[in-house]
């Protein structure tokens, strides 16, 4: 009789009377038949089909009673997505725009499989966000576990990061029947692509707004997480499900001292660009500048420091703080989120305005508490660094203030998605505070142009 | 261990040369000494201040070492020092409770707390902070709000290395850094090297080995379970952690296949041609083991009758691929009839060691090897574990292993071997 065992991210078969077919290979190092753990589904289906006597000692999946306590009104496209995923054998990728409720699709999929589930996410911020959502949904019947960011608690419903899964999946890959890959476009990265190989999980769900990768890596997605089973663009959902909003751009003038310091830093930086004939039109140009400057013998380090200083002045402009205070006052009765790039700025502003701050440092439980209280209206405003970037779930926020944006179009659109959650009779407002006469203006213009191309 | 961003190596005709600092270079020792000093001087001071000072030192000290990459070297040295530091919370107050109370009070106000008192007598920021201060009995509420952030921690202890030891750590750490990107490690162990020690670290790092005999000893191929499905860098970190273990013995040569910045490269290292020093202490049993083995050799030499058996040093490595381990006997006993029995003496052991040894004995006998294992009852963990092991064929001894105990076991072993055959 063939017996299957799970061993450090691989599937080992013993007791075969003859050679085993692909995906097994003979491992001469340990004298065993071995396959990647990810081949489990294929192997078991083949064995069942052939009627060969076998015993599965590999999987230690758990049946868990997963009944969501969250009242999530399933929108028609979410139901369709789930059905399409079911038809493909509970394996595949769902593509929905940010703000369309991808998390809800995952929660329903977990209810449907009713098996131990591993959720893999790209950032610590998302780790905490999923912890919060899954605790709300399933907290009554299971404890949600965390792996990564200093947490190491494995339960039948565990959230982890791609980085932690890369290191630890081989220890726990036999415990989960279902794996959810959030922002699944991260999965084809060379390092991450080994994660599915280490997991037995026969069921998988990938979620993303944009599966395409510039390196063409999306072509391996069907193998890693399953084929795209359902896809809707922002255009498909605009109007009905994504709320319209008003965009208000507020130019911030530098003070005289700031202007002086800025001009100095700017001169050093521009000199270096000119000397090395470096253009500065795209994020790739910026990467090239960093590379040239950090390997240059003369003036490279100074140019890097000047570039940083320039950015600091721009982002920390004094008048920004005062304007922010006025906006908070104006919207004290609203639900307001302030975004900034810098973690230190979050803590400084949190101390100054006595409103809760959220950064990647914020512990998972506290983060959940802050967002819950914000949702309930006990907190009027919160301030967050980049952590609320990709797909955070902050319902009922109707005012957002961006203090320092970067030129990434994708980031911008996703941030907008956050406050575009449907809400009755409520016009959402997005303020963007941009320092005048600096590069930030251009970045802002660029983003709005790309945004106008997409229907509001 | 360094982070990837600290690792520096030069690629010369397909071979990697990890960055190295010379312990003979006065400037290098001075910089290392200054960094150790900065750490030592920051005891009981906040982490953020120490980090700011170290960042400033990157600019000050870096150029003294290398005009271009000096700052990176300083950063890497500081990273290694951080491993010797312990941190503690700066206050007994609970910052989480404090800030939560502050936020609640502020959010309950009809308008945002004003920065300064005004004519309208609107509630101010100071009102909120003052109220929380009186509730909890701590003063600087605004400071305490986030006193649980990493930067606020105080340096509680620092058992720093000497400047010279820091430089040694750095040189090993750079080689380890290159190994992070290794797919496979090939080690040529000469017969004089301590194979048992090497296998101790192979097992500890959960690596998979393949062994081939060579004219001078053994060639060891090291990687991990998934490696047979195509080379992966996944086990690079473990190979890096294995290195200081290997550095505890010699002679050997190693060669690693490394994926370096998208290209294939090789790292070569020869134990006789480098001055790398391990900071590992070695397995616990090394010293005790040496003592009991030495004592046994003397006991054997004094013994009147050895039943025709000759005692020789261990005759090589017995591999057990399925158990992912190997047995490296201390001695091999031979007699005129051409019989050969291996003997391993365990000085210090844990219960797990012993259970593994019993499994290994069973496996060795099943394969026709004749093996004896002796374990000290004095140094071991529990009497029960030892008696179970004895039932499984382990020879117990108290202070010293006596020749007669081994001879008695040889008789017993022979009958076992014959029964098996």
TrEMBL record, chain A:
* Coiled-coil ranges from the UniProt annotation: none
Q: Which reaction does it catalyse?
A: ATP + H2O = ADP + phosphate + H(+); Couples ATP hydrolysis with the unwinding of duplex DNA by translocating in the 3'-5' direction
One annotated GO molecular function:
DNA binding
According to the UniProt entry, what is the EC number of this protein? Answer: 5.6.2.4
CDD domains, per database record: DEXHc_RE, SF2_C_XPB
Q: Which UniProt keywords apply?
A: ATP-binding, Helicase, Hydrolase, Isomerase, Nucleotide-binding
The protein's name is DNA 3'-5' helicase
Residues of the Helicase C-terminal domain: 323-456
PROSITE patterns this protein is in? HELICASE_ATP_BIND_1, HELICASE_CTER
Q: Signal peptide span per the entry? A: none
Enzyme class at the top of the EC tree: isomerase
One short Pfam family name for this protein? Helicase_C
Q: Does the keyword Protein biosynthesis apply?
A: no
Domain named Helicase ATP-binding is located at 83-229
The record's comment on protein family reads:
Belongs to the helicase family. RAD25/XPB subfamily.
Has keyword Chaperone? no
